[in-house]
Amino acid sequence: MPERTEPGTIEVQETAETRLVASGATLEITISGQAFFSGDEPFKKAEEVRRCVDGLVACGVSEDEISIADVDLSVSSGKLAKASTASYRLSVRLADLSRLGPALAAVASLKQAHVSRVVWTHEGVDGVRGDLLGRAARSARATGDRVAAAIGTRCVGVKDLRATVTTSGGGSTDLDRLAVPTAMRAKRPADLAFSGDSGGAGSLSLGHSTTLRIDVAATFLVSPFGSD
Asked: What pTM was computed for the model?
């Protein structure tokens, strides 16, 4: 009886990618105020916050889409009662991207406010991700079959399969932990300024399409023809 030969292996890498266009966005707005208020009080009592909210509402943003994400207190004397400034961070959800330009313009007209970050919302990412994974896996198998045939063997199984997701807005992430929405940040802290007194020097990345890419690395088991 002939001795049974253990299968060898070949490694293949394939990539599939597509462009995702944002369906909505969330603005993070930082506002410098002269007085500290907590809870929902800033909407009523903080003049700078109220002015920003009124400007956003005037361009079609609903107050229900605006919330206080955080409040920072800067104390100059070491006593809470003598706080020098308060910094309010607003979160503004925009389901309709046609309001993005007017909302940015409204914030830019205020000296005490600037947009620090734009987070894009992409719908249907799970489905697109699954389709890409299937496409990359099929390409890997087809390449594996061609390579195996070229060296006089055939693929008889999969030893290992790894997939990595990469987006243009960030680094690699595990396939089941793709962050959605994708955060689009300016490259330098100085670039985050988007305020009325910036003189146009500041800039904010507003490209609302993202490349979703899946890299598949597969290790196939191969055996010579007729070795079964």
From this structure: 0.60
